[in-house]
Every structure is written in structure tokens, then in C-alpha cells.
Amino acid sequence: MRRITQLLSLLAGIAVLAACSGTPSYNPSTFPFQIDQERVDAANIKTVVIPHVNLGGVTRNYLEKEAPRIDAKVAAYLKENGYKVLPQRTFQQHWNTAVRVYGDPVDPTTGKVNMKSFAQIMHSVRDEMVKSSRLDAFVFTDLVEVQTSFSGGLKHLARWDGVTRKPSLQGPGNSVSADFDWAMQVSAASIQVTIYDMELKPLFSSRGGMDATEAIDTRSSAGRYVRRRNILENDNYVMEGIQLAFHPFIVYQDWPGNPD
């Protein structure tokens, strides 16, 4: 009887491990992507460019500094999945030329985008780029700041845009005050991907979480968050965000959204 019990326990453990390794756990915060599959199929995308400008306005300064590094990782991910990525400087040259004609579409004081000027510039850039390359699509990558909070449970987990993260500490200590307010909002970073075809019509849009950009200040007795010294330093977290943001345009096997 004892052997049978041990065997059943072993089989149950194996089943649990198989379930955990075979299917990613559901994350209700996964971003609801939008995809025009019919247009994606018709576009037959093979060659893309990653614009150096944002589609949704001005990025926070602390994130903007990381944009070139993140774009390089996006380019590598696209290449790994069979896409040709044109040099960003080509887009930038044509963009700067068009801005001199139509004016900067971004208001530096408010960060708002004049969509009429933006559209004029993009049409000009598109027309120039097709003269020298077989470009199929524009892949915009915006780094955005979101607000979330860590749970009050034992693990203190935060979930946003498909990821689950633990809090980081910053300061001389390695403990958190027992009175720390875990419901307090913390800033976090996500990458938003938006893809346009050569008619400048949207094909795909989604977002993936990366990492919190604030840490718990261990010097504060009252308990507070401070900006992390090193933003988006965890390459695995950054790559997870990129993979989430491109799904299902590029299928991510561990996508944690609801398949239904």
C-alpha cells in the first residue's frame, strides 16, 4: 500500500511539472492586441524599418535614453524571425528633410503630436524610401510609462502588460518597513509596437511590459519609491516585453494571454 501511495504521489508530481512546463500561466494583464490579419497577409512583409520617432508623443527622458538600445534588440528579434531591417539612419535622413518642409509635428511644450503634419511627413518619407528600397512596413516602437502596484501578499508581485515582476530595493539596507504601503503606485516601462503598411494603414498594435523603473528606497523610514539608477538593465525582461509586444505578428510560444 505504501508503494502504491508513493507511486501515485510521484505521478501527480510529474503531471504538475508537465502542466507547468507545457503551458504558460495565464496573466489577466496581457495587452489586447489588434491585428488586421487580412492586410498582414496581403502585405507579405519581408523588409521593415524602425523609425526613430514615437507614434504616441514624447517619451519620458529617462526612457528616451534607452530607446536606441531597445530598438537594436527589436531589430535583432525581427532579423531572427526572417525579416530584413533597413538602417534607421535612412529613415531619419528623410524624416529630417520632411520636417524642414512641414515643420516638427511634436509640440515640445505639451508633447502632443499634430497628426496632420505627422501624416504629411510620413507620406514624404514613404515616397522617398520606396525609391531606393523594397520597403514593406514601418515598425514603430514607443517606450511608455505605466502605473501599477505590487500585491500585498507574501510574494509582492506586480502584473502589467503580460509580465509579472517582483520589487527591487535601492539603498544601503536589504529590508522593507513592515508599514510599507504596497498599494502605492509604482512606475513601470512597457514597449508599444505599431506596424503600418506602405499605404500607411495600421496592420498591428500591441504592448509588452518590461520592468519597473522605480525601486523601494531603503533609506526612507516612511517607505517610498525612487527612480532606479539603472533603467531596463535586465536583458531577459526587455526581451520578454519585446516578444509579448509582437505577438501574434511574431508568435510567442509563452504568450500568457487567454487563448479564447
Provide key terms for this protein:
disordered N terminus; 260 residues; 22% strand; 11 strands; 7 helices; alpha/beta; 3-stranded mixed sheet; globular
Question: What is this structure, in a nutshell?
Answer:
The chain has 260 residues and is α/β, with parallel strands linked by helices. It has seven helices and eleven strands. The protein has a six-stranded mixed beta sheet with strand order 1-9-8-4-2-3. A three-stranded mixed beta sheet has the order 7-10-11, with no helix packed on it.
Give a written overview of the molecule.
A hairpin with a 4-residue loop joins strand 8 and strand 9. This protein has helices spanning 2-22, 37-43, 61-64, 67-80, 88-102, 115-132, 235-246; strands spanning 34-35, 47-49, 84-86, 137-148, 158-160, 163-165, 169-170, 186-197, 202-212, 214-217, 225-227. Helix 4 crosses helix 7 (235-246) and helix 5 crosses helix 6 (115-132). The protein has seven helices and eleven strands. Strands 1-9-8-4-2-3 form a six-stranded mixed sheet. The chain has a three-stranded mixed sheet with strand order 7-10-11, with no helix packed on it. A two-stranded antiparallel ribbon has the order 5-6. It is globular, with a radius of gyration of 22 Å. With 260 residues, it is an alpha/beta fold.
Shape, principal axes of CA atoms? globular
User: What is the SS-derived class?
Assistant: alpha/beta
Largest sheet: 6 strands, mixed
Q: Would you tell me the overall average pLDDT?
A: 88
Uncertain runs are 1-22
Count of DSSP strands: 11
User: Strand order within the widest sheet?
Assistant: 1-9-8-4-2-3
Distance between the termini: 43 Å
Number of helices: 7
Radius of gyration: 22 Å
List the secondary-structure elements in sequence, H or E.
HEHEHHEHHEEEEEEEEH
Residue share in β-strands:
15-25%
Percent in helix: 25-40%
